[in-house]
């Protein structure tokens, strides 16, 4: 009986290990390391395979922070050939760890210089998005309260108990919003601002999904609070995924609260096929992928000449002057800022 | 000479036998737990080839970290206690009375075990959050955490304890009653001591689950509450502060190991062999008014605890803009059109089921061998081994995940891009269940039965097949069912493992919930209901399987 079971296990293991790729692959295969969010839109890469014959294997490594740290820990024996999903808050850590090979794609000319951030082209900027406070239009209309415009207004009594933010220690939009407040109020003022937010009954939750779906009143979860830290792309998403269809987004974006997140792609040092990896980066900057990004991945194309889908034109804004902080400053101060924020807000 | 060599030879063959049985579980634990976790701890504690004790000192002296450690410990202890108090009557009722709908209830209590925390969070906050249906806002309070831990762990107690309780010889308690003991005393002095191994087993699993609780604490405990697990995640995944993360993980491991060892020693002294009876001899139809009330009260309680939150989810999945309807289910059936799902939900379902099947087989074989080792062995070494086998459940998922990453990276062990890594990780989590369900059953087998069989001329294999197998097989099936459930719902531990892009049901739910939009939310709720139904069906299947061999001893 035991032997039969063992044989069975052996077979299951073989079956599982072989899985779908039991036929020998005649083509080149690149392994792309990415975060969980991107792995759900892997079909975007089908165009690359069709064009070049290079297959893509996707490895998902948790959230952006986990993925970057995993890549750093496997320096010298990398998980894959290309890594995508490094954001500007983790950029310096990647550059300092020297885990990538520089490559300046001929297509890199489409990248606006203020978004590229890394002039050595160890990493290449491929898309961006803004983390902004979203508001529930209906709530503000029904309650006769003016929609707040500036971060400073949020500590006024009129907005007491209305805002939900994510814990920056466990959530990347949460961290982006904290950075927006540091950019706005400076090293001297941001903690006072947060103390005032606490006094004004700000709610802190662990992650984006919880904030958006259980706290925010403008989502399908229909929570109690009309202000939430989310993305500039959330209102178009509310229209695209509406049920039944709507013509006006139920939510809006507080433009002056936005912090810019830029996402980068890079070739991992130790790749077996640098040439194929380069082709993937070239392709990532091409119009064929860039135009697909908004409706599939809800980020903005890095190339400003790629037209945005109508839903994005109608229902959101790209802030002209979003908050940003130099990545090296973020790398230097991240732990201290998080500790100070935790001490001020949570204790 | 002959007389002297025979015991020696018997001894050699016994040691050899033990080694053969031990080989697979020992190798599995060594390769997939000790080696990866050891590697990541080594990297943290010995950064430049020199041992650096300062992070350990910091963990032990920093008041904030001590507060975190203390909270982790006491909430786990409180969760265990409350779960036992609440679930033991349920275990009794489900194992002693026959009534309509019982197998359905038995299957349904397992459902919470597989639900992703964020989905449970939605249900709980709809009930007891701000603006909750119950009218009380418990968000951030310890009560909501305890409630959630009871919700998740109820099945662990019902199944682990009920499995033994349903086969206890009822004549023992009857004898005590005849001798003049009142019901309470008979229960306290006869039944509870007999059940102690199973209660201990259930308690240790519930404790470990609550001790390493991550999603529940983050979601329902509010941001001010952190467990060691949360802190290790923060230090490893966000800050890449490996020395501090390693120090925290060591504290966590040592704490778990000490508690488990104390428990194992305690178990060792208390175990008694039992004359287990087929459940048909134990079960009866509730006849007196008291019995009927007891059954009724427990069923109502289970309904309140388990089915109300589940019903909230069902309601949410049906709530569309135009009233109640099956729109979101139809959307799931239509596949990936206009959604964030890259693969059809049916494929996610198929992936989930195959991983669950592989996990169940792996956990049953490895866990079965390990359980025989622990159950039949009485030495100090088997006690240590027993505690070691439980450790994966008490180890931070991010420690294991990052450990896999830096250790399983060479040659045949380079599993980082192989789908098999997913069921292997699931098996690591499921093993303690299988072992904890099986060991009390194995230990409870009266050795006189074996002796009698041997005296009557049966060889060792025949003795094992006729005496042990019927009992062990049933426990094994319960364990395998657990393993399948753990695998179906497992998301937490595998989030931190670099894994190939294979969509399972919990992964698909997570993806839907990571995008705004009514359609995504509705489909996530609908998919959670699908996951619930699949689990209930798997559990009912296990029940059936179980019912088939009840008469065989």
In short:
With 347 residues, chain A is an alpha/beta fold.
Query: CATH superfamily membership of chain B, which one?
Result: MetI-like
Q: Output the structural class of chain A.
A: alpha/beta
Structural class by helix and strand composition of chain B: mainly alpha
Unreliable spans of chain A are: 1-25
CATH architect. name of chain B: Orthogonal Bundle
CATH topology (fold) name of the largest domain in chain A: D-Maltodextrin-Binding Protein, domain 2
**Shape, per Cα inertia axes of chain A:** globular
Count of strand segments of chain B: 3
Q: What characteristic shape of chain B results from the CA principal axes?
A: globular
Q: Please bin the fraction of helical residues of chain B.
A: over 70%
Query: What is the residue-mean pLDDT of chain A, rounded to a whole number?
Result: 88
CATH class placement of chain B: Mainly Alpha
* CATH fold naming of chain B: MetI-like fold
Output the CATH homologous superfamily of the largest domain in chain A.
Periplasmic binding protein-like II
List strands and helices in order, with pairings:
The complex is a heterodimer of chains A (347) and B (553).
Chain A lengths: L1 H17 L10 E6 L1 H4 L6 H7 L2 E6 L3 H10 L8 E6 L3 H7 L2 E2 L11 H4 L7 E13 H7 L19 E4 L5 H28 L3 E3 L2 H8 L11 E5 L2 H7 L10 E18 L5 H11 L2 H4 L2 H5 L2 E2 L8 H6 L11 H20 L1
Parallel strand pairs in A: 1-2, 1-3, 6-7, 6-8
Antiparallel strand pairs in A: 3-9, 4-9, 5-8, 5-9, 5-10
Helix pairs in contact in A: 8-15
Chain B lengths: L1 H44 L8 H8 L1 H34 L5 H7 L2 H4 L2 H12 L13 H24 L4 H9 L4 H29 L3 H6 L7 H11 L3 H29 L8 H4 L6 H30 E2 L2 E2 L2 H7 L11 H32 L3 H11 L6 H11 L13 H23 L3 H9 L4 H30 L2 H4 L3 E2 L4 H9 L4 H31 L5
Antiparallel strand pairs in B: 1-2
Helix pairs in contact in B: 1-12, 1-16, 1-18, 2-12, 3-7, 3-9, 3-14, 4-24, 6-14, 7-9, 7-19, 8-9, 9-12, 9-19, 11-12, 11-18, 12-17, 14-24, 15-24, 16-17, 16-19, 16-21, 16-23, 19-21, 20-21, 21-24, 23-24
């Amino acid at each position: 009986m035991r032997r039969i079971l063992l044989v069975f296990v052996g077979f299951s293991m073989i079956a599982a290990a072989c899985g779908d790729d039991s036929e020998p692959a005649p083509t080149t295969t690149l392994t792309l390391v990415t975060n969980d969010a991107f792995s759900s839109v892997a079909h975007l890469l089908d165009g690359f395979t069709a064009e070049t014959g290079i297959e893509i294997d996707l490895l998902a490594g948790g959230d952006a922070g986990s993925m970057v740290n995993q890549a750093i820990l496997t320096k010298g024996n990398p998980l894959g050939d290309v890594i995508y999903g490094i954001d500007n808050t983790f950029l310096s850590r990647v550059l300092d760890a020297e885990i990538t090979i520089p490559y300046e794609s001929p297509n890199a000319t489409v990248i606006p210089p203020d978004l590229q951030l890394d002039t050595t082209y160890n990493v290449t900027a491929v898309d961006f998005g803004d983390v902004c406070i979203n508001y529930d239009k209906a709530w503000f209309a029904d309650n006769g309260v003016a929609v707040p415009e500036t971060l400073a207004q949020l500590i006024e009594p009129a907005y007491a108990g209305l805002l939900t933010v994510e814990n920056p220690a466990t959530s990347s939009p949460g961290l982006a919003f904290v950075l927006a407040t540091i950019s706005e109020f400076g090293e001297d003022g941001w903690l006072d601002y947060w103390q005032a937010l606490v006094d004004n009954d700000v709610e802190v939750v662990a992650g984006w999904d919880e904030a958006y779906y259980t706290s925010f009143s403008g989502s399908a979860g229909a929570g109690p609070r009309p202000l939430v830290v989310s993305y500039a792309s959330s209102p178009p998403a509310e229209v695209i995924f509406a049920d039944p269809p709507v013509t006006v987004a139920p939510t809006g974006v507080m433009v002056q609260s936005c912090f810019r997140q830029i996402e980068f792609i890079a070739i991992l040092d130790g790749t077996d096929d640098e040439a194929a990896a380069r082709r993937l980066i070239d392709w990532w900057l091409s119009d064929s992928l860039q135009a697909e990004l908004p409706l599939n991945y809800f980020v903005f194309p890095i190339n400003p000449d790629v037209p945005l889908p109508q839903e994005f034109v109608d229902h959101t804004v790209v802030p002209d002057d979003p908050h940003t902080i130099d990545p090296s400053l973020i790398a230097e101060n991240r732990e201290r800022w998080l500790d100070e924020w935790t001490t001020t807000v949570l204790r | 000479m002959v007389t002297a060599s025979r015991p020696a030879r018997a001894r050699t063959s016994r040691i050899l036998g033990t080694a053969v049985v031990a080989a697979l579980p020992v190798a599995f634990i060594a390769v997939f737990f000790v080696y990866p976790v050891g590697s990541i701890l080594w990297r943290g504690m010995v950064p430049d080839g020199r041992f650096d004790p300062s992070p350990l000192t910091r963990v032990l002296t920093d008041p904030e970290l001590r507060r975190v450690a203390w909270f982790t410990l006491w909430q786990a202890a409180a969760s265990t206690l409350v779960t036992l108090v609440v679930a033991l009557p349920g275990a009794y009722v489900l194992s002693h009375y026959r009534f309509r709908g019982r197998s359905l209830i038995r299957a349904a209590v397992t459902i919470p075990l597989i639900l992703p925390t964020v989905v449970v969070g939605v249900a709980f906050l709809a009930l007891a959050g701000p603006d909750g249906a119950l009218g009380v806002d418990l968000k951030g309070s310890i009560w909501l955490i305890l409630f959630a831990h009871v919700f998740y762990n109820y099945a662990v107690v019902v199944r682990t304890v009920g499995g033994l309780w349903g086969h206890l010889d009822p004549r023992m308690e009857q004898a005590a009653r005849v001798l003049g003991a009142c019901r309470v005393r008979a229960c306290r002095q006869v039944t509870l001591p007999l059940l102690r191994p199973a209660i201990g087993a259930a308690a240790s699993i519930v404790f470990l689950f609550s001790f390493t609780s991550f999603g529940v604490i983050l979601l329902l405990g509010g941001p001010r509450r952190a467990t060691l697990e949360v802190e290790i995640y923060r230090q490893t995944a966000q800050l890449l502060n490996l020395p501090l993360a390693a120090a925290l993980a060591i504290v966590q491991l040592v704490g778990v190991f000490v508690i488990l060892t104390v428990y194992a020693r305690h178990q060792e002294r208390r175990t008694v062999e039992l004359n287990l009876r087929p459940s048909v001899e134990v079960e009866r139809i509730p006849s007196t008014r008291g019995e009927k009330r007891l059954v009724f009260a427990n069923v109502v309680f289970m309904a309140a605890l388990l089915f109300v939150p589940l019903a909230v989810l069902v309601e949410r999945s049906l709530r569309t803009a135009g009233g109640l309807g099956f729109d979101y289910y139809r959307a799931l059936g239509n596949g990936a059109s206009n959604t964030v799902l890259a693969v059809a939900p049916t494929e996610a379902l198929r992936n989930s089921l195959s991983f669950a099947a592989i996990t169940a087989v792996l956990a049953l074989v490895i866990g079965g061998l390990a359980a025989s080792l622990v159950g039949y062995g009485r030495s100090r070494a088997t006690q240590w081994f027993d505690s070691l086998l439980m450790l994966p459940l008490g180890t931070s998922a991010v420690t294991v995940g990052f450990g896999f990453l830096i250790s399983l990276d060479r040659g045949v062990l380079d599993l980082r891009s192989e789908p098999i890594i997913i069921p292997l990780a699931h098996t690591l989590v499921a093993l303690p269940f299988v072992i904890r369900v099986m060991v009390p059953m194995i230990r409870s087998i009266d050795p006189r039965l074996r002796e009698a069989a041997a005296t009557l001329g049966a060889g060792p294999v025949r003795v094992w097949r006729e005496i042990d197998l019927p009992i062990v097989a049933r426990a094994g099936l319960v364990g395998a069912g657990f393993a399948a459930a753990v695998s179906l719902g497992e998301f937490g531990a595998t989030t931190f493992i670099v894994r190939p892009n294979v969509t399972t049901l919990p992964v698909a739910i997570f993806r839907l919930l990571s995008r705004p939009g009514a359609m995504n939310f509705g489909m996530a709720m609908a998919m959670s209901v699908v996951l619930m139904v699949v689990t209930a069906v798997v559990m009912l299947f296990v029940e059936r399987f179980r019912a088939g061999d009840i008469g065989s001893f």
